[in-house]
């Protein structure tokens, strides 16, 4: 069982609070149940490659599913679970927290899993029309070049801490205010220990202090 927290509402925010960011091949699909008897699968990964320099190499991804059929019986997760049908041999992008070699996914985590097609295309991410692995790598390289992954490495590792949750809230993009998608431009700590986040938005520049 993995207890998570609401994710940031931007791609930059999710990347910065996630310790793991990799591509990998699904080597095995292991079905099971959560402690609430909801259907889940463990995906064993192989040929794993880092997307960020700080990412560890996970062994598994844990995914709650909306439905799973076992011997003719349909098992369901109520209001949770992902509409995802993993296949052995497919290439995937995995972003999320690190829990003893496992990356938990689902609506209560800040995780992402996307299938990568042979042409490099991926299902668009929820916050931005990034539709290929190459576009995602460009976004990640920008954050890497700005040194933001180094600044947030310790917080990303301690994903169950109060400091992590507060930091994640400070990374919510102001795009929800109708200003278009906003990249994280810089991070700094204020005198009281909170994080000052400066966003570079498509239409305006906004500084947020939480």
Question: What is Rg?
Answer: 17 Å
Largest sheet: 6 strands, mixed
Series of H and E elements: HEEEEEEEEHHHHEEE
Helix amount = 10-25%
Give a brief outline of the structure.
The protein is an alpha+beta fold and 210 residues long. 18% of the residues lie in helices and 35% in strands. The strands form three sheets. It has a six-stranded mixed sheet. It has a three-stranded antiparallel sheet with strand order 9-10-11, with helices on one face. A two-stranded antiparallel sheet has the order 4-5.
Question: Topology of this structure?
Answer:
Elements: H1 11-17, E1 20-33, E2 39-50, E3 60-64, E4 67-70, E5 73-76, E6 91-96, E7 102-104, E8 112-116, H2 133-145, H3 148-151, H4 153-157, H5 162-170, E9 182-189, E10 195-201, E11 205-209
Describe the protein in words:
The protein is of the alpha+beta class. Strands 7-3-2-1-6-8 form a six-stranded mixed sheet. Strands 9-10-11 form a three-stranded antiparallel sheet, covered by helices on one side. Strand 4 and strand 5 (73-76) form a beta hairpin. It has helices spanning 11-17, 133-145, 148-151, 153-157, 162-170; strands at residues 20-33, 39-50, 60-64, 67-70, 73-76, 91-96, 102-104, 112-116, 182-189, 195-201, 205-209.
Essential attributes:
single chain, 11 strands, 18% helix, alpha+beta, 5 helices, 6-stranded mixed sheet, 210 residues, disordered C terminus
């Amino acid at each position: 069982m993995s207890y998570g927290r609401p994710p940031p509402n931007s791609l930059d925010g999710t990347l910065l609070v996630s310790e793991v960011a990799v591509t990998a091949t699904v080597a095995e699909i292991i079905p099971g149940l959560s402690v609430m008897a909801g259907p889940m699968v463990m995906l064993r990964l192989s040929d794993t490659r880092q997307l960020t320099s700080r990412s560890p190499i996970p062994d598994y991804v844990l995914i709650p599913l909306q439905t799973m059929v076992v011997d003719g019986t349909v098992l369901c997760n109520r209001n949770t679970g992902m509409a995802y049908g993993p296949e052995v041999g497919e290439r995937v992008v995995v972003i999320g927290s690190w829990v003893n070699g496992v990356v938990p996914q689902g609506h209560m985590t800040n995780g992402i899993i996307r299938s990568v097609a042979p042409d490099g295309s991926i299902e668009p991410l929820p916050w931005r029309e990034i539709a290929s692995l190459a576009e995602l790598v460009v976004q990640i390289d920008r954050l890497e070049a700005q040194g933001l992954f180094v600044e947030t490495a310790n917080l990303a590792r301690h994903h169950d801490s109060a400091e992590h949750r507060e930091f994640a809230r400070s990374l919510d993009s102001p795009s929800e205010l109708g200003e278009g998608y906003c990249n994280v431009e810089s991070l700094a700590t204020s005198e009281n220990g909170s994080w000052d986040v400066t966003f570079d938005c498509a239409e305006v520049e906004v500084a947020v202090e939480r």
